[in-house]
Design goal:
The chain is of the alpha/beta class and about 350 residues long. The protein is built from 18 helices and 11 strands. The strands form 2 sheets. Strands 1-3-2-4-11-5 form a 6-stranded mixed β-sheet, sandwiched between helices. A 5-stranded mixed β-sheet has the order 8-7-9-6-10. β2, α2 and β3 form a beta-alpha-beta unit. The longest helix is centred in the last third of the chain and has 20 residues. It starts with a strand and ends with a helix.
Amino acid sequence: MKQISRRRLLQKAGATTVAVTGMAGCLGQSGGSLDSVTVAYVPIYPNMQHYVMEQAGYYEDIPADITIERFSSGPSVVKAFASGDVDVALFGITPAMVLVDRGTNAGILAANSKNGFKIMATTELVARYEQEGAATFERFEQEYGRKVRFGVPPDGSVPDTVLRYWIEADLDIGEMDTVVAKSTVPPAKAVQTIQSGDIDATIIQEPFATLISQDEGFGELAWSGEILEDHPVTVLFANQRVINDSVVAQSLVEQHAAATEFTTDAPDTAATHAASVIGSGVSEDLATAAMDSRASAFVSDPHAITDQTETMGSFVATVGNIEAPVATENLFAFDPYDAIQE
C-alpha cells in the first residue's frame, strides 16, 4: 500500500482551479466532500496511465489523500471493490460489467487501453492459419489427434472474452471449449508455458506478446484490434462516492488524460515508469520495445469505447458471465470527462 500526500490544486493556474471548482454545480453533484480515495490496480501493461500518474506525481494533483493498493489479480480487485475496500480501480472492462450487473453503484470514468491483445502461436500453427484460415483447428485435430492447446487467462477476463468472440462469432467454428483445449495460464506465465511446449497458442497482452515474438519459434496468429476493432481492455472505474464528488472525479480524469498525453508524447519514459512499477521480469528494454506494438494503444475518452463495450456486453451476456447487457448509461459516468473538454 502506498499513500500519496494531499496537494491542493492551488499549484495550478488560478483559472484552472476556478474551472474545477465551478464545475461541481454543472454536474449536478456535490463537490469537495472526499478527504481520501483508495486506488487499486493490477500490475499489467494496459494500465499504463497509472504508472505515469504514480511515478510522475500526477496523483499528487488530486484534491484528496490518495492511497494506492496493488493486487495480484483481477478477481481480487473485484472482491475488494465489491466489499467497499477500494474506491477506484484500473482493471478490465468485463469485471466492471460484472460489478454493475450485480448491483454495485459505480461507473467507468475513463478508458485506459484498447485493441490490447495478440494471439501468439507456434510458427507451424501460424503458417497453417495463413493457408487454411478457420479450418486450421479441425485439420490440426485430424492430423495430431488432439485439439490446439490454448493458454488463456481466467474465464470472464477480457482476453478470455475476446478469444471466445474470435472463435465463436468471428470465425464461427463452434463453442470455444469444443474447438480448442483450453487451460488457464496467467499472463506472466504464458511466455514460459508456450516456450516449454505445454501449449500451442495463447492470447496475451503486451509486453509479453513482444517477448514471445522475439523467439523465432513463435509468431502472431491474430490481433484483437482486427477481431473486434477498438475494443476496450482496461478502464478507470470508480464507486458512486467518487463520482458524486465532482471536484475529485474531474481531477482524477484530468490527470488520467494528462497521463495518456504523456504516454503519447514520451513513450519511452512512460515505458520506464511502467517497468519500475510492474516488475515481475518486465525490464525497461522490454517495456520500451512493446510501445511499438499495435497492441499498445492508450486512450482516456470513454466515448471512444462505448460501441464495442455494447458488443462485448451482449456477447458476455450470451456466455453467462452477466445476466443481461449493461446499458451504457448505467456502466459509464461521462460527466467528469465531458467537463474537462469544455
